């Protein structure tokens, strides 16, 4: 397939690498900042563009991997093309494309956190696909299957919940690691000592439900320990977070 | 060394296995419930007892691995012995032993979450040691070193913060996985799809600071996405948790 990427961020970068590796042609990379377009384009042998009017209208697939808030605007300025349009955003509905075209659009949502500095192993990244009709859906599913062994259909409504769950599973758990590190930093203890504990936390949820893996003072709401901990926390927001999560753990343990 | 264990829970179980494996003799296991004492004692070739008066007073080391709230009471009823007394609790001070004996006591705190159903690899579990004098400290450090490559001294005051940090790093991050799973359960999507995301979340913090690994809508406080997410959450406590953590992430990103 001949593919155009709109966007040059983490998702566009890793997804274009993966698609190129499995034999697709990345023909153009668009970014409103030419430098960013050039950086990615040079790595996937594509042409960089910063003017949406220069989009090649004969590609098979246009992948929109831009920030949620500029996605509608970019779609608005797209020229008419023959190929399919698909975005990669968890929280944006598929039908935003309907403002601009009658058919041939969908969503390819990879459930993963991408960093520029880390290689992504797409083979086990779950992809969630949506298409405006069975033909579009089929093409998007086959494209995703060329890079991942975990591809399924999901509509926009359910995808929003998936994105919400991902925020808890990734962003919020990561912030718990940040707060833990901060507590140790303040005491002059290296946060490195937490690594085996963090590894085991995750190793456990790979083989059992997180609810069943839960331990610690909040499970039985051990007020003495909880109060001792609250007394140690100086930051008021962190104190509130400790209290609320402890109550929630206890509620979920019943 | 000849070791007596007081307690038969997760920590006592895993720690006694590890100490036995490196050539120590576990001579007795005490539990107020004889059945529990028997279960562990049979696995480490020790004698089970449920009466603290039957404690063998000639052991080299007595390890108290019981719940925080019953620890002082058990110490209170201990007969005089020659060997060292040490507890394994993160939030309990070393000096609680001073109510009962003049010297020869300390703390051996392994920073890890233990489950009965999972084998523990002690070689990389960090141990934090405290002793009432250099001689006690030396013996406890050498004992810990016989099972772990990561042993250091830490006083009771700092150990409390370590325990607090562990609650964030393990209990609270695990609860974020629980809430994420719950959101998907309610939508009929298998929580299994979160596993690659959770794995990558932790793989990232093994090589970079969690603060620097942070991504998602809260980093730049993307109000549109955050409001959309809040609208999806039905449980009020979970909503508050979402709001507070998002604000905290944003504050830490500045």
Automatic annotation (TrEMBL), chains A, B:
Chain ranges of the DUF2520 domain: 125-249
What name does this protein carry? DUF2520 domain-containing protein
InterPro entries, per this entry?
A: 6-PGluconate_DH-like_C_sf, DUF2520, NAD(P)-bd_dom_sf, P5C_Rdtase_cat_N, TM1727-like_C_sf
The protein's organism comes out as Fermentimonas caenicola
The Pyrroline-5-carboxylate reductase catalytic N-terminal domain covers which part of the protein? 2-78
TM helices/strands, residue ranges: none
Which Pfam families does the entry mention? DUF2520, F420_oxidored
């Amino acid at each position: 397939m001949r593919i155009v990427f709109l966007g040059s961020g983490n998702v566009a970068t890793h997804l274009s690498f993966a698609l190129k590796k499995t034999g697709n042609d990345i023909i153009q990379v668009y970014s409103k900042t030419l430098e960013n377009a050039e950086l990615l384009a040079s790595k996937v042998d594509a042409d960089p563009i910063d003017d949406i009017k220069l989009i090649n209208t004969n590609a098979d697939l246009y992948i929109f991997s831009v920030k949620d808030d500029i996605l509608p605007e970019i779609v608005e300025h797209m020229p008419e093309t023959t190929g399919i349009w698909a975005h990669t955003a968890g929280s944006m509905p598929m039908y935003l494309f309907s403002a601009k075209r009658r058919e041939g659009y969908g969503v390819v949502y990879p459930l993963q956190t991408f960093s520029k500095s880390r290689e992504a192993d797409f083979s086990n990244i779950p992809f969630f696909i949506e298409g405006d009709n069975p033909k579009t859906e089929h093409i998007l599913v086959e494209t995703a299957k060329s890079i991942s062994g975990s591809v399924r259909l999901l509509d926009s409504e359910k995808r929003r919940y998936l994105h919400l769950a991902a925020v808890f599973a990734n962003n919020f758990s990561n912030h718990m690691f940040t707060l833990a590190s901060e507590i140790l930093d303040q005491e002059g203890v290296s946060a490195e000592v937490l690594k085996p504990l963090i590894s085991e936390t995750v190793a456990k949820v790979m083989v059992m439900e997180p609810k069943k893996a839960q331990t610690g003072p909040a499970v039985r709401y051990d007020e003495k320990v909880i109060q001792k901990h609250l007394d140690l926390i100086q930051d008021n927001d962190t104190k509130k977070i400790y209290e609320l999560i402890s109550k929630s753990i206890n509620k979920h343990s019943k």
